[in-house]
Design a protein that fits this description.
By secondary structure, the protein is α+β, with helices and mostly antiparallel strands. It folds into two domains: 6-183, Thermophilic metalloprotease-like; 214-238 and 251-415, no CATH class. It is built from twelve helices and 21 strands. The strands form five sheets. The protein has an eight-stranded antiparallel beta sheet. Strands 7-10-16-17-18 form a five-stranded antiparallel beta sheet, covered by helices on one side. It has a four-stranded parallel beta sheet with strand order 2-1-3-4, with helices on both faces. A hairpin with a 2-residue loop joins β14 and β15 (295-300). α4 runs parallel beside α5 (121-143).
Length: 416
């Protein structure tokens, strides 16, 4: 990583539009509301623009917290062994306190997905575990939608070099910036209006699926014959959604998916991944898994199989599904043909399933259901939530009604 002048490769006007979209569409930041930003230190040009738009929108206090790749690697090189079981709980406690006081949260993604690929996997997993545990009080307020939150991306040079390995750094950054701007709809004349239209389309799709009340979805394609039972009282969501503080936010920018909760005990058959999954610095490719009674009983991959099986052993819920999502093959991110090695982008290029934790929001009246009720309706729980891609232009999807009759949902990767 270095502080190459970004201005040469990242269009400043579009970067400013991305900041405006993050504040006005992503967060819908309210007058007087505080904002907590987390970002890689290279993303500081975007952080400054977001901070400007936040104060222009009447923000209370805006605070930013930075991560730095070189400093992270220094820990792995020089840090004492005991340090890998520790995490900055005091910082996360402070964030949890801010969210309890209705602060909004904005995360800028763009870390090098392969940063830790050369490091001791034991230390990586210990550090991740310590961090997940310490972060839990703050993360729960985000994942339970207590507050409005948003993630946008910045073309970090180390990420750009991974996506475009054959280009010099400045060109790679320019190409990634262009792809981020297109996917985030900030290359259009009126990005705010474009987002309103996009949200309306996603709402229409989820309303149709909610009206169908399918009991299962059946995926069929090369290496895939999978029946995903849907949770009892599941609800489809997509695009903008209202947080418990009453503010309607767009948590992910970009987003192309409509998604719901599968039934943790009712998934049968086999499925093959259609894109590689990058997980904690490891690439897991050509995943093939077999489900019985909702549980993965066999998992293979041509690359990263060891890491995949380690992930599946995290806890009982790690072998079961917590999300199923539909994305047309013609989505702009998929059409770009770029593999981003970043879930925020890659999951929006393809239909996907996620191992692990479900979203309580994806149940009718989910906010008022207890953990026991969610479980009884088929909701899965786990420390992990890992999305991986199973859609392509060769996959057909049927909706299955409780009486066994079928309705075409997607044909060759497109809405039927
Ligand atoms: Zn998803
Ligand atoms: Zn997910």
């Amino acid at each position: 990583m270095n502080f190459m002048p970004q201005g040469h490769s990242v269009d400043p006007v579009k970067l400013d539009k991305l900041a405006e979209v993050a504040v006005k569409v992503g967060l819908q930041l309210q007058k007087g509301q505080d904002l907590v930003i987390t970002a890689p230190v290279v993303a500081i040009p975007l952080v400054r623009l977001i901070t400007k738009h936040a104060y222009q929108a009447g923000a209370g206090l805006v605070n930013s917290f930075y991560s730095d790749e070189e400093s992270t690697l220094a820990r792995y090189q020089y840090g004492s062994d005991e340090s890998f079981d520790r995490a900055s709980g005091w910082l996360y406690d402070g964030m949890a306190k801010a969210y309890a006081n209705n602060a909004a949260r904005l995360a800028i993604a763009g870390d090098n997905p392969m940063l830790l690929s050369e490091q001791d996997p034991g230390k990586v997993s210990r550090a991740n575990r310590a961090n997940s545990t310490a972060y839990k009080p703050a993360l729960e307020k985000i994942s339970n939608f207590d507050i409005n939150w948003n993630i946008v991306s910045y073309p970090n040079p180390s990420w750009a070099k991974l996506v475009f390995p054959n280009d010099p750094e400045a060109i790679a950054v320019a190409k990634l910036a262009k792809a981020i701007f297109a996917a985030s709809r900030v290359d259009l004349d009126d990005p705010i209006a474009a987002w309103a239209e996009h949200n309306a389309n996603l709402r229409k799709r989820s309303a149709w699926l909610n009206g169908q009340r399918f009991s299962a979805l059946h995926f069929q394609g090369p290496g895939t014959d999978l029946t995903v039972g849907l949770a009892d009282g599941h609800e489809w969501h997509g695009g903008a959604s209202m947080a418990k503080n009453g503010i309607t936010c767009n948590p992910n920018i970009p987003t192309e998916e409509v998604f719901t909760t599968p039934h943790a005990l009712r998934v049968e058959g086999h499925v093959s991944s259609t894109k590689p999954l990058s997980h904690q610095g490891t690439l897991i490719d050509n995943i093939q898994v077999h489900f019985e009674g909702g549980r993965i009983v066999e998992a293979k991959a041509t690359r990263g199989a060891e890491v995949l099986n380690k992930v599946l052993d995290t806890d009982e819920g790690a072998r079961r599904l917590g999300e199923v999502a539909l994305v047309p093959h013609s989505s702009p991110i998929s059409a770009s043909g770029i593999l981003f090695y970043n879930t925020l982008f890659d999951e929006n290029a393809s239909c996907h399933i996620a191992l692990g934790q479900c979203y309580s929001k994806c149940f009718l009246d989910g906010a008022n259901l207890t953990q026991d009720q969610l479980k009884a309706q088929g909701g899965n729980s786990s420390l992990i939530h890992i999305d991986w891609m199973i859609g392509s232009d060769k996959v057909d999807i049927d909706g299955i009604n409780p009486d066994g009759s079928r309705v075409p949902v997607m044909r060759k990767g497109e809405w039927a």
